[in-house]
């Protein structure tokens, strides 16, 4: 698709972001668990409360993240909603176990206002893992304008921002993008690398053994990650 076509439709971007003084980045960098950020609510004392899903492949990893969140100097309170999800996840979860949390914190330590004030519209849950936030956003203008405004945010927030995906807002498959959020980090990494290396092309651009080596896992582990990823992506009811 040409640049002119992208500009006519607006842009759908995924931004990989690091910025200072953020508790979500701190706790996901320290632990093996991740977070999905769903929504933020203002409180009467000037702080905000965010609704998050903590996820991981084991209960202990999720509990480590919850403990780190409670211990963080950047959070004011943590409420665990055990009754909503319990200790085990489902086939549609990004990990084998999930917990929902309400976390209170200082809104000055977020980057959302900087994005929103410049026209970047958050349109799906933010995924936080390995000390990075991954923001799916819509932007109604051109690629050049988006890059210029992102440069402003980088300077204003001392932030590291990478554009990891950019497409026409009129293109793509929203259902597929939502199903991608169901993948665990390991499944997503394996599946995206497989596509990047033309593993699904005919003839294949890379062997299973070579792909496993690039990923740093055994062939058996790679095939298991791909099998689970494919099942979640192909079945809309998963």
- The tally of domains stands at 3
Give the low-confidence spans: 1-7, 84-91
CATH architecture of the largest domain: 2-Layer Sandwich
Mean pLDDT: 83
Shape: globular
Q: Report Rg.
A: 19 Å
CATH class of the largest domain, named Alpha Beta
CATH topology tier name of the largest domain:
Gyrase A, domain 2
Largest sheet: 9 strands, antiparallel
Number of helices in the DSSP assignment: 10
Structural class: alpha+beta
Termini separation: 32 Å
Strand content: 25-35%
Helix content: 25-40%
| Quantity of strands, as a count | 9
Succession of helices and strands: HEHEEHEHEHEEEHEHHHH
InterPro entries: HTH_bacterioopsin, RNA_pol_sigma_r3/r4-like, WH-like_DNA-bd_sf
Pfam families: HTH_10
Keywords: Transcription, Transcription regulation
Protein name: Bacterio-opsin activator
